[in-house]
């Protein structure tokens, strides 16, 4: 079977919408970095140019195939309350969609790779998105997919609320000891019962 042709591509910078960069999406089990911007922005114009060139390279008609560039749709704010499937309306912006089964490499604005355990990028993060374009044909349904491989974060927006305190101004108070409690004890791992003898009833022989 012939290997599918691919084209490396970098898009953006875009504002990311509901990114899943360090953990996969719970519903589809994929990592995503969907970028949103105005259709006439420099980044979106360049995205259109790259996709048109890729379609030509893959011998596809960009006007007839599915592209990873979509209209951004949101739930109609005027939809009746409690509607099971509220109508969606276009925001006027475009979304460049990307996904991968593998976590993307993360980089900061200086090009230094980021430890993914140290950040939790959320919606509003501005980034360049990198990956590869490849053609597909599913029972006559032709298109181009964009597989995510890396993200360069230009502006980081993290989720979750964090608390911080200054020094307590009252008298006394608890001061944490950096040493670990129980360091002087030989505490075995839970389930490690190799040194425990048992009687016939299954209890410890003590």
Would you mind describing this structure in some detail?
This protein has one helix at residues 42-57; strands at residues 7-16, 31-32, 35-37, 69-75, 88-96, 99-100, 105-107, 126-138, 141-155. With 206 residues, the chain is mostly beta strands. Mean pLDDT is 80; it is low at 173-206.
The largest sheet, given as strand count, sense and whether it forms a barrel, is: 7 strands, mixed
The CATH class label is Mainly Beta
What integer is the average pLDDT? 80
CATH topology: OB fold (Dihydrolipoamide Acetyltransferase, E2P)
Helix content: under 10%
The helix count comes to 1
Give the beta-strand count: 9
Please provide the ordered H/E string of secondary-structure elements.
EEEHEEEEEE
Radius of gyration over C-alpha positions, nearest whole angstrom: 26 Å
Shape assignment: globular
- Mind telling me the CATH superfamily name? Nucleic acid-binding proteins
In terms of DSSP E residues, the strand content is 25-35%
Strand numbers in spatial order across the main sheet: 4-5-3-1-8-9-7
Provide the structure class: mainly beta
What is the number of independent domains? 1
Q: What would you say the CATH architecture is?
A: Beta Barrel
Distance between the termini: 67 Å
Poorly predicted residue ranges: 173-206
């Amino acid at each position: 079977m012939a290997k599918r042709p691919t084209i490396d591509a970098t898009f953006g910078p875009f504002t990311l919408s509901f990114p899943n960069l360090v953990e996969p999406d719970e519903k589809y089990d994929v990592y995503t970095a969907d970028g949103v911007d105005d259709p006439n922005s420099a980044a979106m114009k360049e995205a259109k140019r790259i996709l048109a060139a890729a379609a030509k390279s893959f011998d596809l008609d960009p006007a007839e195939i599915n592209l990873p560039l979509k209209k951004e749709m949101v739930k109609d704010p005027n939809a009746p309350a409690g509607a099971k499937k509220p109508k969606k309306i276009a925001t006027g912006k475009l979304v460049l969609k990307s996904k991968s089964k593998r976590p993307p490499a993360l980089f900061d604005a200086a090009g230094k790779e980021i430890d993914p355990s140290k950040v939790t990028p959320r919606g509003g993060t501005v980034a360049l998105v990198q990956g590869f374009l490849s053609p597909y044909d599913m029972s006559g349904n032709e298109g181009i997919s964009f597989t995510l491989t890396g993200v360069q974060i230009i502006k980081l927006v993290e989720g979750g609320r964090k608390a911080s305190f200054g020094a307590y101004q009252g008298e006394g108070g608890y001061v944490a000891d950096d040493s670990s409690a129980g360091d002087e004890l030989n505490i075995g791992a839970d389930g490690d019962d190799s040194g425990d003898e048992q009687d016939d009833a299954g209890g410890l022989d003590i």
